[in-house]
Amino acid sequence: MPQVDRPGSVRLPSAVTAQLSVIAVVSLAGASVRWVLLPLFGGLSGEVATLADIALLSSISAPLLWWLVIRPFRAASRQYAVQFEQMLENAPDGVIGVDSEGRIAFVNKHASTLFGYSTGELLGQSVELLVPERFAAAHAGHRQHYQKAPHSRRMGANLRLTGRRRDGTEFPVDIALGAVPNGSVPLTLAFVRDNSDQRSVWDELRAAKSQIERELGERQLFREMTELIQTARTRDEVRLVLSLHLERLFPAMDGAVFLFSPSRDVVETLVSWGSGAITDDQFSVDECWALRLGRPYGMSGARDTIPCQHVSGNIGAYLCIPMLADAETLGVFHVRATAERDEGEPRDHQIAGRLTEDQRQRALMVTERLSLALANLRLRETLRNQSIRDPLTGVFNRRYMEESLAREINRATRHHSPVSVVMLDLDDFKRLNDAFGHDVGDEVLCTFARFLATHVRAEDIVCRYGGEEFALILPGATPEVAASRADGLRRECTSLTVDNHLGGFVSTTFSAGVAAFPVDGSRVDELLKAADGAVYRAKSEGRDRVVTARAVATENPAV
C-alpha cells in the first residue's frame, strides 16, 4: 500500500504497514481525514501490539472513541442481554432467577404456569413461596449455603424435591442450578422441571422391583419348605416345618392343614396359623364340601355359595383344597382371608376379606407339594414300621430293641446314669396255645403287648423279643426300681382275660428277669444274657415272679 503524506497521519516503514489494515475516519476536530492504522496482531510481537494500541488510542479524540468503541459495545451488550433473556423466556423448563436475598428477580412464563402464578405475582417474592411449608426453613438454609459458593448442579441429581403451587397442591420437581454475573453478586438461576411423570415411572419401577423381590423371597421360602418336608422323617418334623413357613407364605391370613385320622371318618389338625380364628381341632368329612366333591371349594365373592360347616364365626373368603396323592385323599388344606367387614355391602351378602388370585395359586401350589411330601412320609413310615415293628402285636421287634439298648447304654455312659432291661416270659403259653389254638394264643400276645404299652412311661421301650417273650428297656431305672415296676406289672397282669372262643376266658401270668447297666454288664449281649438267666431262675422257682440278675449272681458266683 502506498505511503500517504497528509496532516496528522502516521508514517510507518513499509515492513510494518504490510501487517496493518487501514481505515479512513473523519476527525470531528478540524474536519480533516486521518488514516487510522489497526494492527493485525498475528504478525506483531506482544510489546509492539501494545505500543500500537496506545498510539492509536492517543490519536483518536474522545468523541470519536465514543462512537467507535463505547457506543457499539453498549449496544452489543444490550442486544446480548435481550437475546439471553429471550432464550430464558423460551426455555422448555421453568426458569427462576433469585437474588442474594432470596427474592425472585426473574421468572419465565413456563415457571409461572408451572406454579400457577402470574409473572407479576412472583417478582420480588421470596423463592420459599414455591416450596412446601414443611421444607421452607431448610430450603432457605440450603439456598444461602449455595449462594456463598455457587456451582453448577445438573438436572436429576438423585434428589427428591417438591414444589408447591398457588392452590397449595404439591408436585415432584427436578431442579438444575447455575449462577450468572449480576454486578458484584451473582444471580442464581434455577431451571425447574415437573417430574410427576418421571417420578411416577420411578415409583412404578420401585414397586415392580419390590414385587419381584417379594416373589423371589416367596419362591425361596417355598423351595426351602419343600426341601425340608420332603426330608422330614416324622409328622412332628413336618408340623414344625409348616408352622415356621406357612405363616410367612400366607401373611395376614388364617389357615390350617387337616389330615385324616386312622379311622378316616374325621380329619384332625396337623398345624394351624394366623389369628386363632380356626379353633376346631377336627371335623367330619361331611362338614367340608371340598372333601365331599374331591376338588377345591370356597367363597371369594358375594355370599352366593353354601359355606362349609366347619367354617364358623364371621365367615370370610376362604378356600379348601383336598390333599390328593396316589389317587387317595390325605386331608384338606384350608386358608381364609382375615375378616374385614365391607360396610357398603348388605350384611346378608357380605364376605369378610378377599382372596387374591395370587393367594389362590400359592395355596394350590403349596397343597400339591405338601400332598406329595406327606404321601412319601407315610410310605417311609410304613416301611420303617415294617422293619422295626412286630407285625402281630405292633410293639417294637427284637432288632429295634437291640439297637435301642445300645443307644441307651451309650447315653447312660455319657451321663453316668443307669439303664435297666426287664425280660418277661408268659407262663405256660405253649399249653394255652395247644389247648385253645393259635388264634387265642395270638390274641393273648396282642392283649399282653397292649397292656405293657399302656403301663410304661413315654421314654420306656416295649419290644417282643421272640415267641411269648417280651422285653422292656427302662432308661434311668436302677435294678431295684426296675424290679419294683416289673412286680407291679405282674400283679396287674392277673386281671387280664381273653375270650377262648369256647364260651369262657383265659388269663395268663409271666415270669420276669431284671438286669441293669452297669452292675450286670456293659454291653448289650451281657445285659440280655443276665436278664435271660434271671428269667430262667424265675421259671425254675415256680413262675409268676420277678428275679434280678444280681440275686442270681450272688447265689451262684460262677454264673
Topology:
Elements lengths: L13 H4 L2 E7 L6 E7 L6 H14 L2 H28 L4 E5 L5 E4 L1 H7 L3 H4 L10 H16 L12 E4 L5 E11 L6 E8 L1 H36 L3 H15 L3 E8 L5 E8 L8 E3 L4 H5 L3 E3 L18 E8 L2 E10 L19 H32 L9 H18 L3 E8 L2 H8 L1 H16 L7 E6 L2 E7 L3 H15 L3 E3 L5 E3 L2 E8 L6 H17 L5 E3 H7 L4
Parallel strand pairs: 19-20
Antiparallel strand pairs: 1-2, 3-4, 3-7, 5-6, 6-7, 8-9, 8-13, 9-10, 11-12, 12-13, 14-16, 14-19, 15-16, 17-18
Helix pairs in contact: 7-8, 7-10, 12-13
Structural features, described:
The protein has helices at 14-17, 46-59, 62-89, 109-115, 119-122, 133-148, 196-231, 235-249, 289-293, 357-388, 398-415, 429-436, 438-453, 479-493, 524-540, 549-555; strands spanning 20-26, 33-39, 94-98, 104-107, 161-164, 170-180, 187-194, 253-260, 266-273, 282-284, 297-299, 318-325, 328-337, 419-426, 461-466, 469-475, 497-499, 505-507, 510-517, 546-548. By secondary structure, the chain is of the alpha+beta class. It folds into four domains: 14-83, no CATH class; 91-194, 2-Layer Sandwich (Beta-Lactamase); 213-385, GAF domain (Beta-Lactamase, 2-Layer Sandwich); 389-555, Alpha-Beta Plaits, CATH 3.30.70.270. A six-stranded antiparallel beta sheet has the order 10-9-8-13-12-11. Strands 4-3-7-6-5 form a five-stranded antiparallel beta sheet. A five-stranded mixed beta sheet has the order 15-16-14-19-20, with helices on both faces. The longest helix has 36 residues, at 196-231. The N and C termini lie far apart (148 Å). Residues 1-44 and 341-351 have low confidence and may be disordered.
